[in-house]
């Protein structure tokens, strides 16, 4: 009775390892970018919970936001990426920024992120 060996060959294992390695490397470049983005969104949501959030001026909102960015160690958001628009209900803060990380040789990965948060004036504030 003839028995066939089963399993992966050395070449198959090396190819599989290479594919997994590439995905792991790309993940190591992308995860910090998205982690920063979710820190921005969380900071904006926390800023909206401040008392009189819809009444505060743009400079105060900017200062409070960038304090939160310093605490979260987010350095990809610059002051020129922070914009305040007045609305009839209060104001809207828009943070739009790009992140560029080197990948391999002359290839970069670029992420464009935009977070918006409406700061509403509540009757009880």
TrEMBL record:
This is DUF4845 domain-containing protein. The chain crosses the membrane at residues 7-28. It comes from the Bacteria. It comes from Lysobacter enzymogenes. Keywords: Membrane, Transmembrane, Transmembrane helix. The keyword Transmembrane applies.
């Amino acid at each position: 009775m003839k028995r066939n060996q089963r399993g992966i060959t050395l070449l198959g294992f090396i190819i599989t390892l290479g594919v997994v390695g590439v995905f792991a490397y790309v993940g190591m470049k992308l995860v910090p970018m998205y982690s920063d983005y979710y820190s921005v969104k969380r900071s904006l949501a926390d800023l909206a919970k401040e008392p009189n959030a819809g009444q505060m001026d743009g400079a105060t909102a900017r200062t409070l936001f960038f304090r939160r960015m310093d605490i979260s160690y987010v350095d990809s958001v610059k002051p020129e990426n922070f914009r305040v628009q007045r609305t009839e209900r209060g104001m809207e803060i828009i943070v739009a920024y790009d992140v560029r990380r080197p990948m391999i040789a002359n290839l970069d990965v670029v992420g464009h992120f935009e977070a918006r948060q409406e700061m509403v004036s509540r009757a009880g504030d």
